Amino acid sequence: MEKEDELQKLNGQVSAPRDGDVEDDDPLVLSSQALAALREFLADQNKTVASTPPASSVAGGEESDKVELVTEDWRLSQFWYEPETAETVADEVVTLSQRIPGCRVACIACPTLYVYLKKRDPSLQVQLLEYDMRFERYGKEFTFYDYNEPEDLPLQLKHCFHIIVADPPYLSRECLERVSQTILFLASPVDSLLLLLTGEVQREHAAELLGVRPCVFKPHHSSKLGNEFRLFISYDPGTRLGGLEEDS
């Protein structure tokens, strides 16, 4: 998951969204390893963090198997994907984009995926919508985004994206509702495709709000979150991503 909010406790739960009066349906639960990493992170706040290379560096120059990312800011509910997860989702998006002339992709609150997409296909038109201003380094491909203001976005982004990948920062219905508003704002009115990465707890809400279904492939985070996460999609992938999960 990838907002402005101080982490109030080190008890295995991530704090509520910054508008305070909304509670998560299922608070994020961290494993003991993740808690230890969190304590180390908070102790090292004054140290210099690694920085992500500019988009031009990611897209060009010598190829490297390693993708460099900025350090997760746990206060912003940032939890980067494991490389296998990022590569799998990026490959799926690129595969879909090759079937759509002039395809434009929007990444809502998932900067990890943006970096992997630009590495996978530097020519792909990708817009990153993100709260963390560290990603402003991506220039015109960065748009500041606060899910509390779901449609406070440049009008030139309205209804012009063919593929949207969203990773809401919190596991609450309220957060998903607001991100859903953003998705509807961005989506092309014809044949747009959606990939939603969020917790299993959001299954019914995701189906109700966005008409998406889970695939067999399951995303994982480097921080080993205790909550089960899923990839929900709005289309039939065939055998890719393990196919759609059968109804039980």
UniProtKB/TrEMBL annotation:
<keyword id="KW-0808">Transferase</keyword>
<comment type="similarity">
    <text>Belongs to the class I-like SAM-binding methyltransferase superfamily. EFM5 family.</text>
</comment>
<dbReference type="Pfam" id="PF10237">
    <property type="entry name" value="N6-adenineMlase"/>
</dbReference>
<dbReference type="GO" id="GO:0005737">
    <property type="term" value="C:cytoplasm"/>
</dbReference>
<feature type="region of interest" description="Disordered">
    <location>
        <begin position="1"/>
        <end position="26"/>
    </location>
</feature>
<dbReference type="GO" id="GO:0003676">
    <property type="term" value="F:nucleic acid binding"/>
</dbReference>
<dbReference type="InterPro" id="IPR041370">
    <property type="entry name" value="Mlase_EEF1AKMT1/ZCCHC4"/>
</dbReference>
<dbReference type="GO" id="GO:0032259">
    <property type="term" value="P:methylation"/>
</dbReference>
<dbReference type="InterPro" id="IPR002052">
    <property type="entry name" value="DNA_methylase_N6_adenine_CS"/>
</dbReference>
<keyword id="KW-0489">Methyltransferase</keyword>
<dbReference type="GO" id="GO:0016279">
    <property type="term" value="F:protein-lysine N-methyltransferase activity"/>
</dbReference>
<protein>
    <recommendedName>
        <fullName>Protein-lysine N-methyltransferase ISN45_At03g051500</fullName>
        <ecNumber>2.1.1.-</ecNumber>
    </recommendedName>
</protein>
<dbReference type="InterPro" id="IPR019369">
    <property type="entry name" value="Efm5/EEF1AKMT1"/>
</dbReference>
<keyword id="KW-0963">Cytoplasm</keyword>
<comment type="function">
    <text>S-adenosyl-L-methionine-dependent protein-lysine N-methyltransferase that methylates elongation factor 1-alpha.</text>
</comment>
